[in-house]
Amino acid sequence: MSKKVVRWGIMGTAGIARKNWQAILNSGNGQLVAVASRTEERAAQYIAENQSQVPHDPAPRPIGGYDEIIAADDIDAVYIPLPTGVRKDYAIAAAKAGKHVLCEKPCGVDAAAVREIIGACEEAGVQFMDGVMFMHSDRMPALREELDGDEAVGDIKRIATQFSFLAPDDFEENIRMQSDMEPLGSLGDLGWYCIRMILWTLKYEMPISLRARMIKQSGGAESNDGVPVTLSAELMFASGVSATFYCSFEAEHQQWVNISGTKGHIAMNDFVLPYFGPEVGFDVEQAHFDVDVCQFHMERHSRRVSVNEYSDSHSTSQETKLFRRFGDLILSGEPDPHWPDIALKTQIVLDACLESARSSEGIEF
């Protein structure tokens, strides 16, 4: 008896799908059946390029247009890296056709769109999940153990995070700067990860208030149709924790989070895309400050926590675990409501940040 596998279709030929092309192959429970693009020729070219480095056997077939891949009876799940502006209708159509839906972030242009997608998936009894890879890393349970252990950080008081990269000079032509395709700009592309990390740290406690600042957007400072280029936000929680994040296409690559508390802090400098190597981890810092009359000493007490997990392109990598976990949920026949729930919560906070940044006013929840 052959082993059960999830038969995958990729809707779109975005760059990130090349990484997940390999993740499906490495998952052990998935088979890539087809790739769809606007034309069959483009899909075939994309398949040939990826096959030359990471071959699937058999090679997936090319499909022109997205309706055919949704209707295909030999596909169980679709991965949707299509632009945010057009994602909702395809995700809903896929769910109605009985396909499980894994989509890139942000999941929709706003929370209303995400609710529609989730509703369609729930009605069809299919799994929905966003493509946040770091959520599936073995580093996250290790981090949770340190946070819950009460010795590394103590009571959490502050979370700060940044995700940024320096865009090239011709970035104005990039789809991430087009308001019809990616209206959420850096907030959706980068800020989604920061918000998710903050919410995960606090076990999905929602903020009671926030204030965001639009530092730069396309189309001028007063444009409500402008795409966020650089944005920062401050969030407050009923538990007494405060959090801040900064997302930007203007600052060189950074992707760090710092979780501070009454006993120390945890620093992770690669929480989205792990630095290359066979281990991923973080640092627990518990500095000690001592004063002896005129002698002032700041002592560093640092402890590295790491797990054996390759950063990328491996059967242990976080992107592979994303597809493996999604596949396991499908094969179990029991969709997990946790994943759509946290996607919606992330989108709700993101929407509030955009509203605050555009209005220059605080938001109360």
Structure, explained:
The chain is α/β, with parallel strands linked by helices and 365 residues long. The protein is built from nine helices and 17 strands. The strands form three sheets. It has a nine-stranded mixed beta sheet. A six-stranded parallel beta sheet has the order 3-2-1-4-5-6, with helices on both faces. The protein has a two-stranded antiparallel ribbon with strand order 14-15. The longest helix has 22 residues, at 338-359. It is globular. The model has no long low-confidence stretch (mean pLDDT 95).
What's the layout of helices and strands?
Elements: E1 6-11, H1 16-27, E2 30-37, H2 40-51, E3 61-64, H3 67-71, E4 77-80, H4 84-96, E5 100-103, H5 111-124, E6 128-130, H6 139-148, E7 156-164, H7 185-201, E8 209-217, E9 228-236, E10 242-248, E11 254-261, E12 265-268, E13 279-285, E14 288-292, E15 295-299, E16 302-308, H8 318-332, H9 338-359, E17 363-364
Parallel strand pairs: 1-2, 1-4, 2-3, 4-5, 5-6, 7-10
Antiparallel strand pairs: 7-11, 8-9, 8-17, 9-10, 11-12, 12-13, 13-16, 14-15
The number of E-state strands comes to 17
Q: Mean pLDDT, rounded to whole units?
A: 95
Q: How many structural domains in the coordinates?
A: 2
Unreliable sequence segments: none
SS class: alpha/beta
Q: Give the C-level CATH assignment of the largest domain.
A: Alpha Beta
What is the name of the CATH architecture of the largest domain? 2-Layer Sandwich
Beta-strand portion reads 25-35%
Task: Give helix and strand order, one letter per element, not per position.
Answer: EHEHEHEHEHEHEHEEEEEEEEEHHE
Radius of gyration: 21 Å
Taking the sheet with the most strands, its summary is: 9 strands, mixed
Strand order of the largest sheet: 16-13-12-11-7-10-9-8-17
CATH homologous superfamily designation of the largest domain:
Dihydrodipicolinate Reductase, domain 2
Intertermini distance: 53 Å
Q: At the third CATH level, what is the topology name of the largest domain?
A: Dihydrodipicolinate Reductase, domain 2
The DSSP helix count reads: 9
- Broad shape: globular
